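Sat 14:20. Reprocessing the chain from the morning session after the first attempt stalled halfway. Input below, unchanged.
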Amino acid sequence: MRKGDETKREMLKAAERLFCEKGYEETSVQDILDAVHGSKGGFYHHFVSKDDVLKQLCAARAEASCQAAEEALRGTVGPMARLNTVFRYALPLRVEETEFMGMLMPLLDRPESISVRVCYQDAITEAFQPLLARELRLAAQSKTVYPVTEEAAGPVLCLLNACWLRLALVLLAAAKKKQKAEPSALLEILTACRRCVEALTDAPFASVELLPLQKLDDFAVQILSEIRG
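Finished this time. Tokens:
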């Protein structure tokens, strides 16, 4: 690895740790530089701004989630089970993502942070589209699903991105009130998205499982604690 690449990697690692520990808004560029004993010139050689750092972290997170999905697929048999595995990993509201999402979620409802939200959604789409397209193709070949278009992966990922964002905003609103989100509100969002995904892929009724409600509830309990802290 070249020295410049190593320096950038260290800055990203330090920034993610600081963002999660202190909060994104409370962390300055100087804090990142102090953590790696770097210079402002070195920072701006690799990043346009602190916002750019967060966007690159989101892209890395999306790619890591896709790789985790590939790993999970190695032990998964059956077209629908494999598709549901991809759907689950494309939704970042998972317990293993609690720390990162605890940092990111407070930014999601702020107009000035829309670029970060869009960046993360775009990163998820870019990372997962080839994988989902492959699994949809295999499921179609087995006559398990009948996608309305050969390019269904893109629209499905748009639905998944809209789904996790709506869920995150419900959880965030509950956290601000120091309350637990109503399971019925979460289930309503999941059900609406599931039906849309089934319509786009012509999958059997109720065969799509995005996030089991219990797992989402487990995530909700942990994320609310993260946000309050």
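Residues 114-141 form the longest helix (28 residues).
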